[in-house]
Amino acid sequence: MKYKKWSDTELSYIKHHSADIPDKYIAQKMTEMGGTTITADMVRRQRRNLKIVKSKGRPRKYKANNP
């Protein structure tokens, strides 16, 4: 896979939403906004590079239609 150059707005979106939204939904939203395909693995990698740690364990159910 080709390396993606992350913009400052994309990185700030991950920073602000990673605490309450799963990586899968962040990836879907960023794909819609940017037009390029972004996977949950790509979001997870950037989140870890930004030193943002998610809580361990099984997450609660998340409804995709809530912002």
Describe the structure using short key phrases.
67 residues, mainly alpha, 3 helices, 48% helix, 0% strand
Explain how this protein is built.
It contains 3 helices and no strands. It is mainly alpha-helical and 67 residues long. It has a domain at 8-49. The radius of gyration is 12 Å and the shape is globular.
Name the helicity range: 40-55%
Mean pLDDT: 85
Radius of gyration: 12 Å
Shape: globular
Strand composition percent: under 5%
Order of helices and strands: HHH
Major sheet summary line: none
Draw up the topology in text.
Layout: H1 8-17, H2 23-34, H3 40-49
In short:
With 67 residues, the protein is mainly α. The protein has a domain at 8-49. Helices cover 48% and strands 0% of the residues.
